Amino acid sequence: MHKTSAWPLAGAYTVLVVYASLYPFSGWRNQEIPPWEFLFAGWPRYWTGFDVAANVAGYVPLGFLLALSFLRRGNVRFFAAHPNVAAIAVAVGAGTALSFCMESLQAFLPSRVASNVDFGLNVAGTLAGAALAAGLELAGVVDHWSRFRERWFIPQARGALVLLALWPFALLFPAAVPLGLGQVLERLETGLADWLQDTPFLEWLPVRDVELQPLVPAAELLCVGLGAFVPCLLGYTILRSTGRRAVFALAAIGLGTLVTALSAALSWGPAHAWAWLSMPVRLGLLFGLMLSLLMLAVPRRGCAAVLLLVLVVHLGVLNAAPASAYFTDTLQAWEQGRFIRFNGLAQWLGWIWPYAVLVYVLLRVSRPDATSRIPP
């Protein structure tokens, strides 16, 4: 029996909600008022439709995943009479507790304002998501998904499915190279240098002797191609047949292209949604698709080994190049503009996603795989 992917996704989404709610984690102060005082405050003087939509929409996936994980993990045996009502109650209770903690902690942050309206909207979003999950369960949609999963994926597919579900959201935050997730070395060096400033440990920090050079078109082509190839290989490690692999590869690369266009539209405006699709990028997408087609018949364990190699090469080439000044301005627009509430929802995913895949594949390769062969 397979394990549900909803539970780890709910945990991951909870972490992201905490990050987005408490960003930027600086300037903590004690106002000497109870942190729950926001519950009794009046109606806020200033609010926008974007704020309302963000507070509701931000908790809808949480309620959906919590209710779904409750229903699919077998906990309903204690509530056999009303399992869907119990799932909604558990999800709303957890979402309410999380929102209350986040609003209470925001009372200690100068850049955030605790609000009873935000709290109510968060609870409403959780309720909407939980009700949606219960409705889909009653309609039989979740059972259809379970049967689809059994036909397409091996039983031990939960970890890869979670990573694949997070991949489109990781692409939403603008990347210096399209599909180039995991470019963290330059920021990590700068952050460590600032942290160790005025300490004797600053001299211990390794410094690269050569200045980072922008990627040449051939290197950009390689990064785009490998960035499209990685999710395809990850899917190959859990798919049951070569035909399904071909469908998955086309769908994954198509989805990556569309999400990258959405990210560009959010960053530079709808008129520039496809401005990133230069000649090296187009050739890189084609290169990634060709590599994916060549690997269709390779056993799962072989795909996992190739995925390790591809990840190392991709991250090595990507982190050997700096982010352009224009890209830095784009990041500032995201981090200081209206996307600040969603900053942590995509930025950290874009940074850590390939490294999480690396850890997952290392664990997969280290274990024997009884279903390594791929049927035709």
TrEMBL record:
<protein>
    <submittedName>
        <fullName>VanZ family protein</fullName>
    </submittedName>
</protein>
<keyword id="KW-0812">Transmembrane</keyword>
<feature type="transmembrane region" description="Helical">
    <location>
        <begin position="119"/>
        <end position="139"/>
    </location>
</feature>
<keyword id="KW-0472">Membrane</keyword>
<feature type="transmembrane region" description="Helical">
    <location>
        <begin position="345"/>
        <end position="363"/>
    </location>
</feature>
<feature type="transmembrane region" description="Helical">
    <location>
        <begin position="46"/>
        <end position="71"/>
    </location>
</feature>
<feature type="transmembrane region" description="Helical">
    <location>
        <begin position="274"/>
        <end position="298"/>
    </location>
</feature>
<feature type="transmembrane region" description="Helical">
    <location>
        <begin position="7"/>
        <end position="26"/>
    </location>
</feature>
<feature type="transmembrane region" description="Helical">
    <location>
        <begin position="160"/>
        <end position="181"/>
    </location>
</feature>
<feature type="transmembrane region" description="Helical">
    <location>
        <begin position="305"/>
        <end position="325"/>
    </location>
</feature>
<feature type="transmembrane region" description="Helical">
    <location>
        <begin position="78"/>
        <end position="99"/>
    </location>
</feature>
<keyword id="KW-1133">Transmembrane helix</keyword>
<feature type="transmembrane region" description="Helical">
    <location>
        <begin position="246"/>
        <end position="268"/>
    </location>
</feature>
<dbReference type="InterPro" id="IPR006976">
    <property type="entry name" value="VanZ-like"/>
</dbReference>
<dbReference type="Pfam" id="PF04892">
    <property type="entry name" value="VanZ"/>
</dbReference>
<feature type="domain" description="VanZ-like">
    <location>
        <begin position="20"/>
        <end position="133"/>
    </location>
</feature>
<feature type="transmembrane region" description="Helical">
    <location>
        <begin position="215"/>
        <end position="239"/>
    </location>
</feature>
